[in-house]
UniProtKB/TrEMBL annotation:
It comes from Roseibium denhamense. It comes from the Bacteria. Transmembrane segments: none annotated. Residues 194-276 form the Bacteriophage phiJL001 Gp84 C-terminal domain. This is Bacteriophage phiJL001 Gp84 C-terminal domain-containing protein.
Length: 296
């Protein structure tokens, strides 16, 4: 149960109140930003919450036990701290939000109502709505390892151990042409066709610097490779924009051995029996009930 400041409790119990809502958002890049539905800036928990036109929130919904609760916050993209470009680049994805009730006449009187994580963000013109997911939704995420023929490590992480700074696995290039769903660069010598399929493309400069997307497919173009992206860029990239492309991995043992020479660190279980073996059973008509393997 939340502990309320006695002075704030007394204010709420009064006949007239001066209450406002404040949201402090902490993005994964370390940026902390504050917003309020009041018409003046309010300093809450060491963060200055700026007025945001038409910012409003729906009622919070909670379920029994550890059921995931949630709500939404919506408004207009009119604050200098809340830009269309940042939303497009995913800088607000999975950001943590603290929701406060504040006495705007005395901002030291606050009550932390809930903590949440930003989920899906929807936009329509200059308006947006963001889903606020209760922290209990983290309990629904996968924990531990999954046994699979494929590797469950991420390329370059502490289990994979591949050094992605090696020029064999990533390189920088200049954009020659692009559209929201694809990017073309000049020739990339020293790399096999399809080397970057399943990899990652990151924009290094320009208006959407920091945007990244997985590469769905690398195809050979007349003037250089063409990278089809799973997530379209917010806008076409200007010619000359620097990008970084990283090699792809299909997480199979053969690829780990031939492409990365890293099969000793392979984090999958390639010799697991398949469905045919699991579903097999002794059959008197086979004439092979002699203790030999059921599946060759």
């Amino acid at each position: 149960m939340k502990q309320i400041d006695p002075s704030l409790a007394g204010h709420i119990a009064g006949r007239a109140t001066t209450l406002a809502s404040c949201w402090i958002v902490r993005r994964l890049d370390g940026t902390a930003l504050g917003f309020t539905d009041h018409d003046r800036p309010l300093a809450v928990s060491g963060t200055l919450c700026q007025p945001q036109n038409a910012l409003s929130a729906t009622a919070a919904k909670d379920g029994p036990g550890l059921a995931v609760g949630g709500s939404e916050i919506g408004g207009a993209i009119s604050s200098p701290d809340l830009t269309d470009s940042d939303l497009e680049r995913g800088l607000w994805d999975n950001a943590r939000v603290d929701v406060y009730l504040v006495n705007w006449e005395n901002p030291d009187q606050t009550l932390l109502l809930r903590r949440a994580i930003i989920g899906e963000v929807n936009r329509s013109g200059s308006a947006f709505t963001a889903e606020l997911r209760g922290l209990s939704h983290l309990l629904e995420s996968r924990q531990g390892r999954v046994f699979s023929r494929r590797c469950d490590a991420d390329l370059g992480d502490h289990r994979c151990k591949i050094n992605l700074s090696n020029p064999a696995y990533q390189t920088e290039a200049l954009v020659t042409a692009s559209a929201p769903g694809w990017v073309q660069t000049g020739p990339l010598s020293g790399y096999q066709d399809g080397w970057f399929t399943g990899g990652r493309l990151t924009v290094l400069d320009g208006a959407i610097s920091g945007f990244a997307s997985e590469i769905a497919l690398e195809q050979a173009g007349t003037a250089g490779p063409v990278f089809s992206l799973f997530e379209a860029t917010p806008a076409a990239l200007d010619a000359g924009t620097r990008i970084r492309v990283r090699a792809g991995c299909d997480k199979m043992l053969a690829t780990c051995r031939s492409k990365f020479a890293n099969h000793l660190n392979f984090q999958g279980f390639p010799h697991m029996p398949g469905a045919d073996f699991v579903l097999s059973y002794p059959n008197s008509n086979t004439g092979r009930n002699d203790g030999s393997p059921l599946v060759d």
